[in-house]
Amino acid sequence: MADQANTPLGRMLLDEITPAVMVLRTPLVEDICAQNGVNLVELLSPFCVFNNIDVPVRTANDQPYRLHKFKLRLFYASDVRQPNVEVAKERLKKVITFAGENDVSDLYSDPPLPIESVLNTLVVVSSKDEEPINKFVDLLNTNQLPSLLNDGAMDPKILKHFLLVHDNLDGTPEKALKVLADMRSTFGLNACRLLCLNSSQDGLADHQENLWAPFKSDASPGQRLGCFLSMEDLDELTDIMQDLSSKLIIPHMEQKIRVLNQQVSATRKGFRNQIKNLWWRKGKDDTPENNNGPMYTFSSIESQIRVLGDYAFMLRDYELALSNYRLLSTDYKLDKAWKRYAGVQEMMGLTYFMLDQSRKDAEYSMENAFTTYLRMGSSGQRNATRCGLWWVEMLKSRDQYKEAASVYCRISGEDPLHSAVMLEQASYCYLLAKPPMLRKYGFHLILSGDLYKKCDQTKHAIRTYRGALSVFKQTMWNRIRDHLHFHIGKWYAFLGMSDVAIKHMLEVLDCSYQSKATQELFLRDFIHIVQKTGKTFEVFRLQLPIINISSLKIVFEDHRTFASPAAVNVRESLWRSLEEDMIPSLSTTRNNWLDSQPKLMQKNYKESNVCVAGEAIKVDIGFKNPLQVSVTISNVSLICQHSATADETEPDANSSSSENQNDEVLRKLVSSRELNLDTSSFTLSEVDISLGGGETIVAPLTVTPRVEGVLNIVGVMWKLSGSLVGFHSLEPNVTRKKIAKGSRKLKHSKSSNLKFLVIKSLPKLDGVIHHLPKTVYVGDIRRLSLELNNPSEIAVKRLKMKISHPRFLNVGNPEDINIVFPACLEKDSSAPSNVKVGTEKILDTVFLFPEDATIHGGTPFVWPLWLRAAAPGHISLYITLYYEMGDLSAVMRYRTLRMHYVLEVHSLIPKMTISLVDITLIEQYQKHISTKWNSMC
Amino acid sequence: MATTACFMIVSRNDIPIYEAEVGTAPKKEDAAHQHQFILHAALDIVQDLAWTTSAMFLKAIDRFNDLAVSFIHTRLMLLHDSRNDDGIKTFFQEVHELYIKILLNPLYLPGSRITSSQFDTKVRALARKYL
Questions:
Q1: Residue A580: what are its φ and ψ, rounded to 5°?
Q2: B33:A483 CB<8 A
């Protein structure tokens, strides 16, 4: 039994089911109390809890035991009535809203209990009142008493105690003592006491801070409660209340139990009485169905049994209480007084619990009471709630959390706010259950959150959803995750906390599995939130659109330059084999070991790629739109870092794999980028792209370094819908890059592929072959012209050229440009036209341009080429041009220009109608052409 | 009569590998996540129950309003509002056969998402037939 009293439910029962004392007082008494900042009930309440008294009590069967703890509850007469549902609802709402402000995570909602039908009366009159004796009588006048006492529901003959309050500030208590003597003669010796208050003259008495605080609902912290009460006053208060309980109330209850027990035994116990009772009850079967059953007055035997049971319960004689409740429940059941029946069942359940006897019986009683209350409809809802809460506590104290949770779910009824609290409690029960049922916990938090939101308790809704997020964080159940993040985000935005809102909304952007409507909704709300803030947000690793990192392609030009994009895509090995005998290897270009050849790169630059100032580095990145709705992104550009020397770049910025650090670098760069856009040492291109649903677009981006130094491509940034800036770092360690041009340095660590050594601006040749047809017929001969252009003032010289298919394409003589084509092919040109001006042919394929051929200053250099379609098929023509810098101080001595053309040669025969053309003519023609060709080459 | 039914297969660690709305009720926007919530929560119940019962077919072990969740082999779950227990059981058995066929596919990595469109079509056909 002692164990049960120590459980949370046991303590609660001992706290809540205690004798109620009705307080009647005159206004002057309130004035005295008001000086201390409290009203009368608040003043007395701290002294109504007795934790170490020792009162001997005897049971109805004369078994002695002792009560050590006791408590009284005080109420004003005006508060003694049936509790009002609306008021309670308002109170609940206020409590929850208040808790929302303070972010209290755990709420306990306990609707006020209906007052037990056990009342004692404390009548209080001030000594300042005129004719105090008459005042006492007036106060007890039945007209002013609560209606419950008058309409017969309660016994009006209740215990009365008379208290005379004297204010010591008004003088010595002599007059009061005289009144007390009068009172004693009128009302009896033991029933009267004198209470002297406010003995502390200066009003500075200091007390334990929280003596009254728990009883004062609207206490402000600065208020000094009880400042006029001296220690003596407090002792007197303790004394009076203790006497009231131990000398008056407990003996009174004890005596009443005996009387009632005898009465009940006489009328109801025993075989004969039971038969009689059954017979008598049966006769009442035809009474109309009524939820409350017949009206029971206080004098009816049923009420007497109930009072007996309640008294016994309060005095902790649970056996007696139980037997009476049991007796009563059958009566009520027969009478179909369902509310009373449920009430008795509820008390039975609690009594079983306190006895700790039969768990099954206790649960059965509670279940019974609960369902009976629910059957009554809306009138029983509040009682059902109370009953359910007792039940839950009972299950909780037995560690049956799973069952407790299901009871909480059953309590949750129509009222959304009420249900929200109950569902939240249910979720905590699931969490405490063994093993913890985390999924149920999450689910019920979500349900509760939805209801909170319905009642405009947004903060609570967010709190519950965030709790659920901890469960669902790593989940693969994508719809759940999206639902959570979307709603948390929306609610945070509602509260004006855009930063957090956006963080959550970002999580739902990549939702390709959702329907189109949902995607539109997500995107629209997200953009709306972002725009509402009016700021530009910077987001790392923005999920929209998705960067296809494997599509990353970087094209840059060091000593190798390309005439067209087509040339870029050709395998490096092919070019290299073509250039083999043209390019001087490093060792051979040095004349002797003393010749301090300007090194191509210093040692610590070795792992970088080399690029030339003023020449663009092209970076192609694929953007993929995962959604079905179209998305527009603007200002797509690269993020680059430039430093004058290699040492200036922090080594960790590039080598560190820590993502956070990389983010920091990005952030720094982006912020600095806005500041020095004009004076920047490099230029970035910006493109705008619009992605349709599911579309992937490769964005061509370029960065053009302007100054020598080291350039590092760090990431890419873009603007989504004009206000959200997304970044993506082109993290070297994480990403697999496909550098189009296999660089010589590839054997070094890959991390350097985005790092470029920028060298001084160099001349660069542009080359184009004019009039090259895409398709020709076999045997066709065309004169083409190669035009080379060098926009730089610095001349390039020592040009060499090599062509991959000399059979198809050959170099002509400079004067070929002027001859008339195809007239020159005619046979009668008697003189051999092999006039070679300064051209040498050292090898069959490398063509050396004349020594004096220099190109500079934008003057085009034109050289004729001859095309002869020798055989049908697809021909890839590769042409490389080698040239050296006129300026010997340049870091790079030479460069190559690579050109690539595709030629389709159609077979002649099927295309021509043989009958029309004399075969011999064709043969002649071909013979002539081949001799002509041989003479040219 | 329009019925609601949501079928799902979960792999280890509660990762959903297949899901299909197989009910005849018109699709609602919020239904999808609600169904996921209910099914997800029901995993708690089945986890408990799996140790105490030897039955493979656990019918309507969890309820939410008028929706019930049934399991077979603790991995195949169906959220339904129909009372047709026999139909559900047959449906489960047939789908289980299909699932085994998927597992027998050497190219299928167990525990990964089932993307076979044939499987999807067959499951939907079975749902029409039995539910």
A1: -45, -55
A2: yes
